[in-house]
Amino acid sequence: MTDPRTPKASWTRDEHGIPQIVADDINGLHWGMGYCHAMDRGMQMLIMRILGQGRAAELLDGSDEMVEVDRFFRRMNWNAGVAAEAENLTTEARAACQSYCDGANARFAESVPWEFRLVGVKPDAWTIGDSLLLSRMTGFLTLAQSQGEVERLFVEMIQAGIGDAHLEALFPGCTAGFDRSILSEVELVERNVPEAVKWLVAAPRLMASNNWCVSGSRTASGAAMLSNDPHLETNRLPNV
Length: 240
Known about the structure:
Elements: E1 9-13, E2 19-23, H1 26-53, H2 56-59, H3 64-76, H4 82-87, H5 91-110, H6 114-119, H7 128-159, H8 164-170, H9 180-184, H10 195-198, E3 210-214, E4 225-229
Antiparallel strand pairs: 1-2, 3-4
């Protein structure tokens, strides 16, 4: 397929249904990626934008649970300053991002996901700021949130009286120099991620991946074993 408004980009699907984009330049490829993302995962993109902006109760469902979800996302404030950040991109980066947005909007102009028509929501045009918002959300989901949970667990264990030897076994190389008396006085407030958000079906799980390794001294072959378990659910955000 070749879009008449963007003659330098075309796409087809291979035998597995995966879009194959052909373009004369890199911005044409970005346009094609935006178009295909909006075609295959448009509802997900728009839902994640609504969540990130803290507007789910306003636009989708006014339930108490959704209000709690909105409170969380507004407290995280990921949407703040995205327009200004977009303006600070280099000329090359801004052109690439805008091409992606143009492709996504070309697809949304052809067809808005039927679920949005059903609830009477007409999505705004996709912007560079929206892409930055989703990038901020992805960064939190894959790193910051899990780091915070680990640090909280460490403090909880100290306050529960877990000894230094057990802490070192669980956090090897990370326990030197901490002041147990200070951490014992830390007041742990409500978790940053409420349960209603953690198990929200529309959003990627607010949980981290894991991996483990086994020394060669414990294997039949004598070689070390490494296993990775990346938690990349199908509802993860479309990534470039």
